[in-house]
Design goal:
The complex is a heterodimer of chains A (about 220) and B (about 200). Chain A is built from 7 helices and 7 strands; from the N terminus they run H-H-E-H-E-H-E-E-H-E-H-E-H-E. By secondary structure, chain A is of the alpha/beta class. Chain A is elongated, with a radius of gyration of 26 Å. Chain A starts with 7 loop residues before the first helix and ends in a 38-residue tail after the last strand. In chain A, about 20% of the residues are buried. Chain B folds into 2 domains: about 35 residues; about 160 residues, no CATH class. The radius of gyration of chain B is 19 Å and the shape is globular. The longest helix of chain B is centred in the C-terminal third of the chain and has 28 residues. The termini of chain B are far apart. The chains are: A alpha/beta (about 220), B mainly alpha (about 200).
Chain lengths: ~220, ~200
């Protein structure tokens, strides 16, 4: 007795059933688990290409650049009290669900540098390619941008640099200090009020919201 | 379909329109080749003597579903990045019924009507005018029905999430439903075809 050959449709149905049966064990979502390329990350950390210094960030803000997202990882109260202009407030736990694009330049900062470093690792692990940290965090922002100080034994070059820093400090509502005359610890310095955001030179360029274009 | 490339800025708005045009041409060609450029073939679905539409649609669903599942499983596709049309249960049931009535009466669905228009069918011209008129009417009455349109917002959800079932189980169940459906559809075609 000869068995009747299967038609094409029956073969396709069999293939679909087989694939469907194997798919019973499939877990296509990555979920909260991540995969890391340890060597690549170690290299990035070693070369410190993941850092943005506070004066660099200050220059970006003064220029009105809009090609980055600045994320403040501190608590809402701390954010409300003071934050670097243009920063958005995100908690570490909310980072996974925060609307970020994987190709965006993301700049993180926290009080010191630990939380931003940890968030950096989380984001890199999830495939965000361009993640940076403000070196030294908000502490560094205060010391180097808002209240820069000039050591007493500074040479001419350092003095010229300090003049520029003083202007930037003024722009952000801070104040430059020369060591010795005030001797006030920066920790005690009053942070600029947020009610008067620093005016942008020329026409302020609003952060361009990326048009959402999705669908089938 | 081309969203990830578009989103990551690999090409701009103009080029994305060009890509959409090429994809649309391919889609239309396949519809025409499948015979869906004819209102007779499409209407036959609702009289149950030709179940091609059901089979084609379900085949597409199963193919895409298996493809997405396996690509996600292999780690080649990030399913979290795939955009889903947000679910609004009641409005989408109402909308589906309206579309279904239009499908039976007009003999086309929006996609096939454009394919039929491209081959110069006169009924498709009237159908396209109907689409334009319907769009205008919808835009005019939208303020009045806004509440219904946006009711039951469930966000971008999938069946495994709604029913709390494992992804793989839902995939397998849909494949089984499809295969049983194809078998049943063929039986119905034969039965109706053999009647005088």
């Amino acid at each position: 007795m000869k068995r009747r050959a299967l038609t094409l449709n029956q073969k396709l149905a069999a293939v679909a059933l087989a694939l469907g049966a194997v798919a019973l064990f499939a877990e296509p979502h990555r979920g909260p688990y991540v995969k890391l390329d340890a060597r690549e990350l170690a290299l990035v950390v070693e070369e410190e290409v993941d850092h943005v210094t506070a004066p660099e960030l200050a220059a970006w803000i003064v220029e009105g650049r809009a090609d980055y997202r600045l994320l403040d990882l501190r608590t809402e109260q701390e954010y409300a009290a003071y934050h670097i202009p243009t920063a958005e407030n995100v908690q570490l736990t909310g980072l996974a669900d925060y609307p970020l694009l994987r190709n965006e330049k993301i700049v993180l900062y926290s009080e010191g540098g630990i939380h931003s470093a940890q968030a950096w690792m989380l984001l890199r692990a999830q495939g965000y390619a361009a993640v940076y940290m403000v070196f030294g965090g908000l502490d560094s922002w205060k010391d180097e941008v808002l209240f820069p100080s000039l050591p007493a034994d500074a040479d001419a070059q350092a003095r010229a640099q300090f003049e520029r820093a003083a202007q930037v400090a003024k722009f952000f509502g801070g104040e430059a200090r020369v060591a010795g005359d005030a001797a006030a610890p920066t920790a005690g310095a009053e942070l600029p009020k947020l009610t008067a955001p620093p005016p942008m030179p020329g026409p302020a360029t609003p952060v361009a919201k990326k048009k959402k274009k999705e669908g089938c | 379909m081309m969203t990830p490339l578009f989103k990551y800025g690999l090409f701009g708005e103009e080029f994305s329109l060009l890509v959409a045009f090429v994809l649309g041409l391919g889609f239309g060609f396949c519809l025409e080749r499948a015979g869906f450029g004819s209102a007779r073939k499409l209407a036959a679905q609702f009289y149950l003597y030709d179940m091609s539409v059901f089979k084609v649609m379900f085949t597409a669903i199963v193919t895409a579903m298996l493809g997405v599942t396996y690509l996600g499983w292999l780690g080649w596709l990030d399913l979290d990045l795939v955009y889903l049309v947000p679910t609004h249960l009641a409005p989408q049931i109402v909308g589906g019924l309206v579309l279904g009535v239009g499908f039976v009466v007009g003999g086309y669905c929006p996609g096939t009507s454009v394919a039929a228009l491209a081959t110069g069918r006169i009924d498709a011209v009237l159908y396209a005018l109907g689409i334009l008129a319907g769009t205008l009417v919808y835009a005019e009455v939208y303020p009045a029905i806004k509440g219904l349109v946006n009711a039951n917002a469930m966000g971008q959800v999938t069946l495994p999430e709604v029913f709390g079932l494992p992804w793989g189980l839902v995939v397998f169940a849909v494949v089984v439903i499809a295969v049983v459906g194809f078998w049943g559809a063929t039986r119905i075609e034969r039965w109706l075809g053999s009647r005088p």
